[in-house]
Each structure stands twice: as C-alpha cells, then as structure tokens.
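Recap from last week: sequence in, structure out.
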Amino acid sequence: MSRKLEGKVALVTGASKGIGQGLAIGLAAAGAHIAVNYKTDPAGANKTCENILTAGGNAKSFQSDIGKKHDFEGLVEEVYQHFGRLDILVNNAARTRFGPLWDMTEIDFNDVIDTVLRGPFFGSIAAAKKMQDHGGSIINISSIAVKQIMEGHSVYTMAKGGLESLTRQLALELSPKVRVNALAPTATSNERNLAYDPDYDKKWANVSPIGRIAYVNDYVGPCVFLASEDSALVTGQIIYVDGGWTLQGNSPDASDFDFSSDRQKS
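Predicted structure tokens:
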C-alpha cells in the first residue's frame, strides 16, 4: 500500500483485536503513526503495536474506557501530547449484547449506547478541536445491521443507526476543517463470530452476491481512502462494504446462534 498517510497520527479505538486491530495495522502500513486504544485487553493492544513496530511503523497503546466522556477526552489529550498532533480518529470500539429483545436489561442498553454512541459523540468533538489547525478525518465504524434488520440485534442496531446519523450531523458541523464519514462492515470472519456459530463463514457467504464472507483486510483500503486526501471531497457518507448484501437483503437463519456468552462480557 502506498504511504498516503505519511506523518499523520491516527487514533483507533478498540484496536486490540478484530476489525480495529486490522485497521490500525493497515493505517500504519499507509504511513500513519498509530495510537492503539484498548479497554481491557493490554495483551491484544501490545500485539497490535508489535505488528506495526516490526513492520517499521510507529505505535503506542493507550488504555481508556471510551464509553465515558471524561475518559475519551483524556485519551485524546494523552495521544495529542505524545505524538504532537492528531489527524485521524477511527471510532471502532463497540459492544454488542446480542440476544432476544425481551432479555435486554438496562445494563445491556447502557453498555452498548455508551460505547457505540456516547463515546464517539464526545470523543469526536475532542478530536476535532485538535484538528482545527491542519484539518482531519473522523471515520466511524457502523454496521450492516442498520439496513439488514436481524433477530437479537435490537440495542446494537439502534446504536449503530444513531452513529450513522451522528456521522452526518458531525460532517455538517465540523466542516470545512474536519471530514466525517462511516464504514459499515458486513458479516466478517473472526473469532467472535465463529464462536456464535462454527458454520458462520459458510452461512453468510451464501447470502452475499459476491459469494464470500468478509475478512478484516477488506476494510483497510476503504478506511485508508477516507483517511487520506483521496477523499478530500467526501464527507457525511456511509460506505457499506458488504459484498452487495444490501442489494438483496437475504439473511441466514440465526436461530441456533449461541449468544449466551455475549451479554456476559465485561
């Protein structure tokens, strides 16, 4: 990948695993210095940093619960003080709490809303203040679930829908200095999803016109595009990286997915 982000500083929340980890590594490969945020997985964050450092990049891990306004604002300040600037914010950290609608508790509700929506609202404002002199890009990670309504996704879908509305609102209010866009991933092959269902990859590949499941690396190119000057005239957009899934809207039967451990995670 060409080094389109040379000298830029990117903060990626929830970058200790999954999509966040892949985006952090991909942005580093494009030349950015990376602030790797984690909440409870220092080992995963260190692994992300080690991968970047081994490839000749620059990365440092930062612990923070981004669902708390004060913590996210403190994270932005800490990253800015360490690197001397902030150009890119990727609001990737999320909570799911999947399960039947009638089983959702207020704890579930607050957990998802705080991480998916409250954090990006206050964190984006804090980051945008650091970008006023030189401009910047905020990239929110939404979800296919906003369009493809699925069983067991109630609070998560609501929160991600709010994140897409927030994307458009921030794009208007932070222009012209800061561009704000969102990527909406589709069903993705990763450890968590395979824990829900060992046949996850096969089931979801069958409903995609492109004929396969998504992998974390599929999101790196679009993320680098939105972070770079290649997208200088792009703001307020929701880009669905979904293999054409939303063209037809079919969903596999998820009635046998095991979500029992999902709502027990801290």
